[in-house]
Amino acid sequence: MQVGEFLYEGKAKQIFATDDAKVVLIKYKDDATAFDGQKKGTIVNKGIINNRVSNLLFQLLEKEGIETHFIKQLNERDTLVKKLAIIPIEVVVRNVIAGSLSQRTGKAEGVELSEPVVELYYKNDELHDPMINEYHIRVMGWATTEQIQEMDRLAHEINAVLKQFYDSIGIILVDFKLEFGLYEGRVVLGDEISPDTCRLWDKVSLEKLDKDRFRRDMGKEAEAYQEVVKRIEAVLA
Ligand code: TMP
Ligand code: ASP
């Protein structure tokens, strides 16, 4: 596989073409941002850890019959994935109240929800990723009713698999964000699932093992990310 031209740079990743029009290469960076890019920094070896974590979790999901964009990890920072036509929606799944749900409801962080809550956001930094609903998505033409239903179904399935897996390694999966795209007409899981895109709390100490450490200036971000990849690799690698 030949690496081709640079296509796109996001906040945490770069994308390159390959000699196969249906495949792109993702390169994970150490750059960290929060609040739609207003806060900037780096987390040591974050790119290496997120590449590894995401690929191991995507392979776990594939084993459970959930299609992802993952094809092959090439090296520490580079992974080949199916080229998706990204649906510009962020699908957030929540098991425990935290972050913006706590702010929106006035309920304390840490309260377990009686069932998972799925939220939809329009992926647009300039607009600060506003929360939207399925009417907006359909009427704006971002996805069809069937595609919205499929994202919802997959979000619940992915949550069931990941929640159980994280529980088995002593971590509470508080909430996380997913992005989907179209590949050969199918709705396929893309982007990444990593400590950047999940809230992960140690089951015993409730210590935060995710990007909230960066967002909230708590320190020890790199150590937290290392702890997550260490526990995942002990089971999945
Ligand atoms: P929130 O509580 O800030 O809405 O975040 C919910 C989850 O989504 C949390 O696990 C972090 C993740 N997330 C992203 O991956 N990207 C984002 O831009 C935001 C705002 C949240
Ligand atoms: N997407 C947000 C940003 O880069 C990061 C976050 O809060 O997760 O600003």
Please provide a written account of the structure:
Residues 7-231 form the SAICAR synthetase/ADE2 N-terminal domain. This protein is of the alpha+beta class and 237 residues long. It has 2 domains: 3-82, Phosphorylase Kinase, domain 1, CATH 3.30.200.20; 85-221, ATP-grasp fold, B domain (D-amino Acid Aminotransferase, Chain A, domain 1, 2-Layer Sandwich), CATH 3.30.470.20. Helices cover 32% and strands 34% of the residues. It contains 6 helices and 15 strands. It has helices at residues 46-63, 99-105, 134-140, 145-168, 212-215, 221-236, and strands at 3-9, 13-18, 23-28, 31-34, 39-42, 70-73, 78-82, 85-86, 89-96, 112-122, 131-132, 171-178, 180-183, 186-189, 198-202. Strand 6 and strand 7 (78-82) form a beta hairpin. Helix 1 (46-63) runs parallel beside helix 6 (221-236). It is globular, with a radius of gyration of 17 Å. 36% of the residues are buried. Thymidine-5'-phosphate binds at residues 92, 98-101, 129, 175-177, 197-199.
Briefly characterize the structure:
Belongs to the SAICAR synthetase family. The mean pLDDT is 97.
Distinctive features:
34% strand, 32% helix, Phosphorylase Kinase, domain 1, binds aspartic acid, alpha+beta, 2 domains, 5-stranded antiparallel β-sheet, 237 residues, binds thymidine-5'-phosphate
